[in-house]
Amino acid sequence: MSTELKASQKSLYEVDFVRWIETTAEQLRTQNYASVDWQNLIEEIEDMSRRERKSLKSNLIVILLHLVKWQYQPEFRSGSWRGSIREHRRRVNDDLKDSPSLVPYLQEIFAECYMNTREQAADETGLLLETFPVACPYLPEQVLNSEYLPK
């Protein structure tokens, strides 16, 4: 690939990301592999995986946080908490359906997410950290079950 072509691809990637995607897709579709900006394409594909994992983790923490607050602050229960739990469950379940390879990742990060949740719940509720169990009181299946709310 010529230096000039590499420079023009690099600048397209930096100047107009959407156009770069469209150009790259067309190059792949027409099997014009010599013109593909492989370095940026590979980085973007790797970033996609990281973004999916971060999104899963973030949504899981939101669910856990609202479940903990639901359980430990029943006097503040609201439709917005219930709605947030439902929305983030839907997101996680959609992600797991679309990418079943994320299921083992969810199992891997579940305890870590709960530990983050525990600290955030203490901050948000004003309750002592010790109020919340060290081990997650919910099973992953409960956390993702659209009907489950702790007592």
Oligomeric organization of the protein chains? single chain
What average pLDDT do the residues reach? 91
Summarize the main sheet.
Answer: none
- Bin the helical content: over 70%
- Portion in strands: under 5%
How many helical elements?
6
Which stretches of 5+ consecutive residues score pLDDT under 50?
A: none
According to DSSP, the number of beta strands is 0
Topology diagram in text:
Layout: H1 3-15, H2 17-29, H3 38-72, H4 79-98, H5 102-125, H6 140-144
Helix pairs in contact: 1-2, 3-4, 3-5
Can you offer a commentary on this structure?
This protein has six helices and no strands. With 151 residues, the protein is mostly helical. It is elongated. The protein has two domains: 36 residues; 96 residues.
Offer a quick outline of the entry.
The protein has helices spanning 3-15, 17-29, 38-72, 79-98, 102-125, 140-144. It is built from 6 helices and no strands.
Protein traits:
73% helix, 2 domains, 151 residues, single chain, mainly alpha
